[in-house]
Structures are given as structure tokens and as C-alpha cells.
Amino acid sequence: MSLLFIKCKKKEHTKISDSEKKEVTQSQFAKNYPEFDLLQLQQRLAEATVNDSVLSPFYQSSQYASAWVHDTLDTDNLYKFVDVLGKTEEHGLPATVFPTSIIKALTDSVDLAYYKDMDTLYARIVTLDTMATKAAIKYISGMKYGFLNPKHLFGKDYDINIAQPDSAFYVNLYNDIKTNPIDALLAAHPADDMYLNLKKEYDLLKEGEERGFPKINSGNTTFKIGDKSKHITHIAQRLIFTGEYQPQSDSIPTDSLSYTLDDELLEAINKFRRHNSLPEEKEVGELTIDALNRPLEYYQQKIRANMERYRWQRTKAKHNKHIEVNVASAMLIASQKDSADLLISRICVGSIKNKTPLLDGNISYMNLNPYWNVPRSITVKEIIGQQKNDPAYIHRNNMKIFKGGKEVSVSSIDWKKADPAKFPYMIRQEPGPRNALGLVKFMFNNTHSVYLHDTPNKAAFNRKNRAISHGCIRVQKPYDLAFFCASPVTDVFKDRFFYSIGKDPQSKEGKELLKANKLKKVSDIINIDKENRISLFIDYYTVYTYPGESSLYYADDVYEYDNLILSGLGFSSDTKD
After folding, report:
1. Per-residue DSSP letters for 344-384?
2. How confident is the model over 307-340, as pLDDT tens digits?
3. Would the pLDDT of 254 be above 60?
4. Which of 90, 215, 234, 357 sits most deeply, having the most CB atoms within 10 A of its CB?
5. Phi/psi of residue 306, nearest 5 degrees
6. Residue limits of CATH 1.10.101.10 in the chain
């Protein structure tokens, strides 16, 4: 609606003081400002918002009518709005993310008849109206889609398709704000179980922050079953609050030798360890004590970052069979909609220097007995140097060298003079149990040349920090994952699979078929047909849960992605111990 239209209609307008509506003439606003002219406010709103990309479409859609002033100032909704904005911390946001105090101060000043001349009044109402409207638009769109865009935060390392507000969303949003802004704000809150669990945990941590905990000053002491100590008392008190320990009585005596480390308390400690990505043990040492002594702010920061993550809406649908890879926890979960069974496997992910990209896709095929075409970056940075120091390295690792598609003898190269910057060869590792990809890899289309695969280095899965690969994902249970992906799966199929990768069949029928020389190998390429598509997400959550559970698990922020989110939201981003 043009400014010209507003000016032409001005002569038809009636001032509030002239209105016949009883409720208007009796309003405090009308009494305070009898000369107030709604059309004058519309004109000023048009002038103030014409070049504002966020506000101009909103006000144009209503002919520049105020969102918060009708025949009178909508103080009731404005104060409710201030109350909603004042609770943004419950959603893991800084208290300063919205101009809450300014909106309240402006509302108070107008409501209390602070302004005596009309020009100042109009200016203040325009500021109040536009500021509140912009905050409402930001609040609702942020709650529905996230306040940050991960593609801007993480760049090329983030390749998951997420929903973004479109024109249809904004049309509905504008109508909702005009109809009832408070209902629109409250309806925007995420309501999925995971988000509500995070919010509940966040509230619990705030309660604990106010209550406080004694620090466990046990030094490098290691506690064993049967030990008594005031430090064990403090451990028990800490675990009661966070729910891992539930003794018959919550009242624990504080005498220095009053509490014993028994099997029940040790199980609670191991539950705490599981929830904090620590190894379970039969003793309690410095590593666990350090984790127990983490300030509650450590967990609050993680929840803040992950509440934002869970506001991001993935657009790719999950298929009947689904694989979820969590890079932060270095864990994989494979699930099927019509089955309660889960495949949970440890994984190894990319190191800090070689981060595993976050992406979505579909598993397209499995490759048994794969070749490994060594990436040039690994050839240049690692293999050339290793071959120089150990002339048997390439041969011992079952590798071959090619140039222009033709194999070249290792001995024909003067490795001492090999220049990594000008090295013209491609190195390939042949199939076999020592192949870096193991005996099976799982392929899906992506622009990063990453995939899931087996590995001969099984010991790495026992490490706490499993961010050690060059970017691809090593799977601790590759055969279980292969059987999850394949369809249909019978005992004989499993035997054929094992036979194809050089392992013995396991079923009685398979052994008999092998003995009769009738056990056939499966193809080295096992395609996943479109009717049985398997969706895959490789994502990053430092607070997560497992299907069917409500308990929250915490993972280390190995890539420091939490810090990027927290900084983007306006928090201090130090989540370290």
C-alpha cells in the first residue's frame, strides 16, 4: 500500500477522542492522548519501514496498520510479549538476544503518559511497534527453523539439507502476529520429545546451579569397592541430583567416613560414565572425578548448543531402514521402523585436521573386498615419507603403483629423490584383510568422497577419542551393518557373505554346502534397490539419546562446533572443563 493512499484517506479518519466506542473512549490510552490519530501513526510506520527488508512486507500487507496499537495501545499483549521474551533462557538463548527491557520501558512510558507532545509520542510508538514486531518475527522463525544457519557456520563441512522459511511461511506468520501475537509465539515452540528433554534437563541444571555441589578434592586417589571416604559421600550426593544414583534415602550423612563405595554406587558411577562418554571400570579414579567436578555450566552450554541444533529441520525423509551417524559421540545407530531391534556400533571418525563432513544421503551399494585408491593427500603427506624410511613399506602393505593407468614397479622409482609436490603416480592397495578399508565398504553419493567401511585396526574402537581417521567412517560392526543393509538376509546368505570375504561359514547348512563345494560367493558389489532404500545422516550432536530412551548422553565437542554455535547465539563459547 502506497504512502499516497494513506495521505488521501486522512480526511475520513476520526480521532480516538471522537469515537463513539465506549471501550475506546474510556481507555486510559485515549484519556492520556485524546489527539492521537491512527492514520498519522500509519503514515509514520510506512516512512520508518519502507526500506526495511524484514518489516516492510509485514506492514505493507496490512496497509501499515500497527501490530500493537489499534484504537488503544495493546498493553496487555505487550506485557505478555515481554514475559515470553523474558523466558528465552529456558530455550538456551542469551537473555540479551531480544530487546526485552527496551520494549518494556517503551510500553511503560507510553502507558504512563510520559510524552506530552504528539511528535515524540508517535516516534516512540513507531519504535515500540517496529521493535516488538521485528522481535516477534525473529522469535517465531528462530523457534521453528533455528536462529542460525549451519551452512553459514560450518561452510563446506555441512551438507545436510535443512528447511528455511519461505514466502508462504511469512504470509502465515504475518497473519498470525496480527491475529494474536502471543498465541503465535507460543505455538512456535518446538514440541518434539528430544527438545523437551533438553529443556527439562536445562531447568534441572539451573536448579542445581542455585543449590551447588561440594567439590570432590580427592587428588589422584583411586577408590575401590569397600572404601569409605568423605569424597565418596560427595560422589553419591552429586549422582543423586543428576539421577544416576537412587538409594533408599536421599539424605546422606556427611561424616567423613560414613559412606561406602559398594556395588550399587559403582553401578551409578558407571551409569554416569556411560552418559559422559567415559569407559566403565571397577574403580573410581582421577578421570571420573574430574568429570564429576565439571561445573554445571559445562552441561548447560552443551544443551544450549544442541537446542539450536534440534531447531534445525532436516528436509530429507527417513526411510524404513535408517542409519544415524553421530560424529561427536563416534557412534552409529541403524534402525528399522517395523522393528524394535537396533544396531549400535562404535565408529572412528575424521581427526580434527581431517573432519568428517556432515551430510545426508542414501546407501547405494556395498563393496566387498574393496580396493583402496589412496587419496593424493595421503600419498603426498604420509606414504612417500614412509616408503623412503622403509623400502618394504609399499610391498608389505600390499600396494601397487600406477602411472597413466599402467602398473609401475616400486623398484623403478628413486624414492630418495621423490618430490611429493611432483609425484606423478597413483597408489592402490589391493583387497585383503590388511586393506585400510577392511573387507567391506558402504557407498553413498556425496561430493566429499567419504564412505563407511570396515578396518583392520580394531584396537582403535577401544579409544575414548575416536576422531582419528582421514575423514571416512570406520565401523566396529561392519558385518552386522552389512546384514542390516542387505535384503533378504538368511543364514545361507550370511555364510555366502563370509565365504566371499575369506571367512568360514557359520551355519550348519553353510558348512555342509562348503564341504560339498556348493557354497556360492555373493557379488563384490551388492546394490541396494530403490524399494529398500536406506537413509543416512552423518550429523554432530554433543547431547543425544538412543531410540526408546529418555536419558541424555553427553559427548566431547571434538571439532569445537558447539563453540561456533554458542558464539553465533551470543554466548561466551568456552565449554571446556
Report:
1. EEEEEEE-STTPPPEEEEEEEEEEES--EE--HHHIIIIIH
2. 999 999 999 999 999 999 999 999 999 999 988 8
3. no
4. 234
5. -80, -25
6. 216-292
**361 Cβ contact partners less than 8 Å away, ≥ 6 residues apart:** 444, 445, 446, 535, 536
Phi-psi region of 310 (alpha: psi -120 to 50; beta: other; left: phi over 0): alpha
Q: Model's pTM, two decimal places?
A: 0.90
Cα separation, 536 vs 555, in Å, equals 20
The DSSP output letter for 443 is E
Cβ 348 vs Cβ 356: under 8 Å:
no
Residues 6+ apart with CB under 8 A from 227: 260, 261
Mind listing the pLDDT tens digit for each residue in 369-408?
Answer: 999 999 999 999 999 999 999 999 999 999 999 999 999 9
CATH number of 216-292: 1.10.101.10
For the ranges 205-214, 265-274, 349-358, which has the lowest average pLDDT?
A: 205-214
Sheet holding 406-408, edge to edge: 372-373, 426-429, 399-403, 406-408
Which residue type is seen at 541? Y
Strands 452-453 and 473-475: parallel
H/E stretch holding 480 reads: helix 478-485
Q: Which residue is listed with cell 567391506?
A: 440
Cell (9 digits) for 431: 583387497
